[in-house]
């Protein structure tokens, strides 16, 4: 369904174009627009939080307008004598616009659905709760806000990012323990930080608290080898690449793989992994990695650091390093901490898998 934006009236031999969207409306009135890619508000006083930035142009209101900022609008809306609290995040501030628009496409991206009758549109949230009700009036579907809030305690900061704005969001407080399990026992601080921004869509607001996760204790115990590297000292990508092989696993994959090899760029921490049926495939994987990173970054690998296992210490790898002018650094015997970056990635990957397996009472890998 597309909401009508204009209509034509014939008067004698002339044609009068009446653009409904160019007619000013009260501040408490919002229009449902399935053709708009963003929510838009023309009244600065309605924002509970607003970040001004460099204006950019977009097509709206049957023409081109300038969006001068992005912010949050919070209002209440009455449906069947029940007051709904609505939060519109990342709303574009368009002072030259004449009407306030709620974007149907952004509502859909936020998980909302809607049903339409002849003179009514009812919008429901992810849990099928009615949150917005628009009624048809003079060719447009409108709702009236019953009040606005300037309280921004739970409103996140926003900034202009091209045309990527606007979702309908009423962010609730999530169960930290439940989401810790859903996200495969990810670090608590990382989860809380992710919930504060737009990093993970659909993740509710999480509040940090003391939590003793028995699964993490069982799955993430480790032996301390030495002082860890605390900062990156290189200046360019591919100055140094760490690599390590993990396996064999107890069970083969559907393709018959029992190992994987990881390559970690020391500067960017960009990680590339390959699954393997045997350790002898390390050579082919390294050849592919050289070409892959060349296409991706345009840079060449300068140093490769590995342990002294036979999959790395052989004539084939030596010839590859000579051909591509790569210095191969080998760690000392019984000193895994010297290749700590690759070892740490393997540990994190296996801990994540093991935590999931322990949590589901499955056989260990």
Beta strand %: 25-35%
Secondary structural class: alpha+beta
Mean pLDDT: 79
Q: From the coordinates shown, what is the CATH architecture of the largest domain?
A: 2-Layer Sandwich
Largest sheet composition: 6 strands, mixed
Q: Give, in order, the helices and strands.
A: EEEEEEEEHEEEEEEHHHEEEHEHEH
Indicate the low-confidence ranges by residue numbers.
1-23, 151-171
How many beta-strand runs? 19
CATH fold-type name of the largest domain: Nucleotidyltransferase, domain 5
How many individual helices? 7
Radius of gyration computed on alpha carbons = 28 Å
The oligomeric state of the chains shown is single chain
Instruction: Name the CATH superfamily classification of the largest domain.
Output: Ribonuclease H-like superfamily/Ribonuclease H
Q: Going across the major beta sheet, what is the strand order? A: 8-3-12-11-10-9
The backbone outline, from C-alpha atoms, is elongated
Q: How many structural domains are formed by the residues? A: 3
CATH C-level label of the largest domain? Alpha Beta
Helix content: 10-25%
Spatial separation of the terminal alpha carbons: 51 Å
Summarize the topology.
Blueprint: E1 6-11, E2 14-19, E3 29-33, E4 40-41, E5 47-60, E6 63-79, E7 82-93, E8 100-103, H1 104-109, E9 113-116, E10 120-124, E11 130-137, E12 140-144, E13 147-149, E14 167-168, H2 176-182, H3 188-196, H4 214-219, E15 241-246, E16 259-265, E17 271-276, H5 282-297, E18 303-306, H6 315-323, E19 327-330, H7 340-359
């Amino acid at each position: 369904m597309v909401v009508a934006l204009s209509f034509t009236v014939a008067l004698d031999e002339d044609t009068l174009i009446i653009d409904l969207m160019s007619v000013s409306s009260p501040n408490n009135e919002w229009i449902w627009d399935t053709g708009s890619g963003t929510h838009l508000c023309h009244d600065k006083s309605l924002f509970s939080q607003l970040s001004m930035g460099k204006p950019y142009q977009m097509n709206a209101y049957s023409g081109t307008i300038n969006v001068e900022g992005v912010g949050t609008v919070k209002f209440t809306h009455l449906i069947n004598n029940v007051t709904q609290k609505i939060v519109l995040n990342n709303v574009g501030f368009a002072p030259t616009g004449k009407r306030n628009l709620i974007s149907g496409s952004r509502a859909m991206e936020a998980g909302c659905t809607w049903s339409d009758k002849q003179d009514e549109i009812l919008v429901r949230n992810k849990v099928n709760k009615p949150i917005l009700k628009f009624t048809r009036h003079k060719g447009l579907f409108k709702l009236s806000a019953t009040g606005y809030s300037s309280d921004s305690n739970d409103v996140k900061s926003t900034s202009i990012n091209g045309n990527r704005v606007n979702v309908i969001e009423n962010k609730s407080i999530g169960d930290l323990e439940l989401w810790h399990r859903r996200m495969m026992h990810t670090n608590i601080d990382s989860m809380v930080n992710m919930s504060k921004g737009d990093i993970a869509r659909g993740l509710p607001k999480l509040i940090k608290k003391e939590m003793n996760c028995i699964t993490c204790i069982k799955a993430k115990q480790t032996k301390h080898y030495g002082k860890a590297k605390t900062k990156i000292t290189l200046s360019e990508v591919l100055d140094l690449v760490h690599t390590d092989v993990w396996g064999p696993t107890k069970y083969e994959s559907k393709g018959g793989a029992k190992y994987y090899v990881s390559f970690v760029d020391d500067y960017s921490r960009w990680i590339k992994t390959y699954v393997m049926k045997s350790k002898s495939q390390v050579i082919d994987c390294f050849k592919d990695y050289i070409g892959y990173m060349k296409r991706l970054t345009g840079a060449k690998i300068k140093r490769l650091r590995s342990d002294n296992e036979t999959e790395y210490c052989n004539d084939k790898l030596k010839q590859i390093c000579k051909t591509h002018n790569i210095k191969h650094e080998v760690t000392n015997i019984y000193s895994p901490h010297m290749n700590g970056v690759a070892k740490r990635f393997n540990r994190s990957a296996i801990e994540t898998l093991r935590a999931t397996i322990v949590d589901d009472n499955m056989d260990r890998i």
